[in-house]
Amino acid sequence: MISDIAAFLAPSWGPLRLLTSSFMLAAIGTMVAAISAMILIPVLSKYLPTDRGRAHAVDSAASVGKPISAGIIMIGIIAVAAFLFVPFDMRIYCSMLLIVAASVLGYIDDKSGGLSELTLGLCDLLLACAAAVIIFGFEPAKVWLPFTADILTVPAWLHIPVAVGIIWFSINALNCSDGVDGLSGTLALISIAVLGLLFYMAIGHIEMSRYLLLPFDADGYKWAIVCAITCGCLAGYLWYNVPPSSVMMGDAGSRPIGLLIGILVMVSGNPFLIVVCAGVILANGATGLFKVAMLRFFKLSLFSGIRFPLHDHVRKNHHWSNSQVLARFAMVHMAVTLTLVSILLKVR
């Protein structure tokens, strides 16, 4: 919205042209989101529900009584900032509405003490279906894959179910990773920052996309601004969530941010980016979902010697502190993501 107003008024006052620059919009949006989070989270946290602890989670008693569901504040900041700083785009605005809906669902889950797994799973499935339709409609999609320069046209009957599955797993993987101070926020920030750079410098850049043999997306810079705003808000939240935390995002934050990561991956045109940019999130959270699914539906007991999420395993079995888990998982996530992105872009 700001860019449209600036473009209209720029002939009257030249400096307003700065606000039509996608780089400036991303930079200002990042700062506004970060400062808003740093101001609003401590002010509004007294109105949030408090944590009751999690059954079977390692050291869950340490979180009891802390404000939870700060995600509802964060998602509000992200949605408003996206409306202000992202040039008009109906897909993005509708995606923001879905993310707000996911946050409200998470808030209800946090406040009620926990909805049933079936209820949450079905709601996540509905959100994933709606997101897939918003992204693609029912039209064929252009897809680029690892290790080939070919750009494929995939029919809707195939790519929409794939999108639903990836988005659903992204929601739940990040949610399962939210068990250590600062962990889910830091991992999400790294993933979204890398996706933002891909949108701004490759997918949404006509010359670079041609050089890298990627399908050009004229709206890529808009998604890059969304990524920048989200990273700013996450940074503001992490100011209060690093060990020892004073507030937690809860399901009201982890679920919508996981939804956003899934949406960004599918908009990029390469579904394998969920592994490339969120590999540690999947390994930490989604492997536990796979283990439970194998046991419940096929009576197969896999990884019986490993506790999931993995952050609980290393805390319980290897006696890592919360700070060690955060630092080591973040370092591995950065190293793996940057390595895989380099391979993905150059080996084609």
TrEMBL record:
Its cofactor is Mg(2+). It is a multi-pass membrane protein. The chain crosses the membrane at residues 23-44, 64-84, 90-108, 120-138, 144-171, 183-203, 223-240, 260-282, 326-345. InterPro entries: Glycosyl_transferase_4 (IPR000715), PNAcMuramoyl-5peptid_Trfase_CS (IPR018480). It is found in: Membrane. GO terms for molecular function: metal ion binding; phosphotransferase activity, for other substituted phosphate groups. Keywords: Magnesium, Membrane, Metal-binding, Transferase, Transmembrane, Transmembrane helix. PROSITE patterns: MRAY_2. Its main location: membrane. Mg(2+) binds at residues 175, 251. GO terms for biological process: cell wall macromolecule biosynthetic process; cell wall organization. This is Phospho-N-acetylmuramoyl-pentapeptide-transferase. It comes from Pseudohoeflea suaedae.
